[in-house]
């Protein structure tokens, strides 16, 4: 723990030379939250003190920006997801592959690890679960839009169960990574193989 | 905590009247492990003391049967999975639905909750992860066998990606339950809808 982490005087802190500016401090704080959670700390166990110490900022810097720990964790989870992926919008297959690949970047893998570490909390804490769903929802909606577009253009079947198909496209990647099943379903070509399996179906034509 | 939980004399304990016999004690012990984990205790935080207290047995009763905590947790996870489901062996569709429904019983839901609570440990602890995979593997093999049988009979496509299809059939149920997505994909008819989506595929025929 350094001198900064024990400072509680916001004004003084801002003036001190060599200290991170707001955006950098925010990033360091959010990063510290994610690091603590993926180290195995439960949401309940994460403390503002520990976050401040790990980020190298004073507690006041955190409290100036976030009213409480729950809001801080929500922002950390949101920040990690990054921007929504851009889609070519030509072929449904290509767009679905792009969406699944966006869930398998190193950043996404880290997100998956944090989600896995938050699962015991997500099960118990309704507020946290709602927050997590709010983070996921815009991405799920992008996938739904691709599927609906496919139905509209006639590429996909008219009676497609859009919600179940979205789950079939997102769940395998999460479970493969969380349960470490790469020895069964390798990372190589994962997105293409999954999308093709979902599109073509299993029955013999 | 009762008197039993502090007893360390195995012989004395066995003779005492009114104490559970071995099978009952075993069940109480395994149940206590699962209860502690689904209450949100990490595998690291679960102690033999806490298990003994919750099960109402002495620590010696636990140590007589399990060499260490890891072996105890492994047995608890294994015990919860219960017997492999029996399959009619007629139609691939019916057997797959039966397998998915077997993953959605109240017992299976509890297993899913324990797995979710163990995920932070499964990610960090290679030994625990291997143990968990060993518990899952016989069930995964049953699903593979159904799929391979379908390929052999010509019901399923000859170039089926068996491993990916098994993941597509098992992962959605886990994620729907872990992330509490019942408002998006309801429990009602889940197994049938998933199996039909996997079998028929998404592309318009």
Automatic annotation (TrEMBL), chains A, B:
<feature type="region of interest" description="Disordered">
    <location>
        <begin position="1"/>
        <end position="23"/>
    </location>
</feature>
<feature type="compositionally biased region" description="Polar residues">
    <location>
        <begin position="1"/>
        <end position="10"/>
    </location>
</feature>
<dbReference type="InterPro" id="IPR050109">
    <property type="entry name" value="HTH-type_TetR-like_transc_reg"/>
</dbReference>
<keyword id="KW-0238">DNA-binding</keyword>
<feature type="domain" description="HTH tetR-type">
    <location>
        <begin position="23"/>
        <end position="84"/>
    </location>
</feature>
<dbReference type="InterPro" id="IPR001647">
    <property type="entry name" value="HTH_TetR"/>
</dbReference>
<dbReference type="GO" id="GO:0003700">
    <property type="term" value="F:DNA-binding transcription factor activity"/>
</dbReference>
<dbReference type="InterPro" id="IPR011075">
    <property type="entry name" value="TetR_C"/>
</dbReference>
<dbReference type="Pfam" id="PF00440">
    <property type="entry name" value="TetR_N"/>
</dbReference>
<dbReference type="InterPro" id="IPR036271">
    <property type="entry name" value="Tet_transcr_reg_TetR-rel_C_sf"/>
</dbReference>
<feature type="DNA-binding region" description="H-T-H motif">
    <location>
        <begin position="47"/>
        <end position="66"/>
    </location>
</feature>
<dbReference type="Pfam" id="PF16859">
    <property type="entry name" value="TetR_C_11"/>
</dbReference>
<keyword id="KW-0805">Transcription regulation</keyword>
<protein>
    <submittedName>
        <fullName>Putative TetR-family transcriptional regulator</fullName>
    </submittedName>
</protein>
<dbReference type="GO" id="GO:0000976">
    <property type="term" value="F:transcription cis-regulatory region binding"/>
</dbReference>
<dbReference type="InterPro" id="IPR009057">
    <property type="entry name" value="Homeodomain-like_sf"/>
</dbReference>
<keyword id="KW-0804">Transcription</keyword>
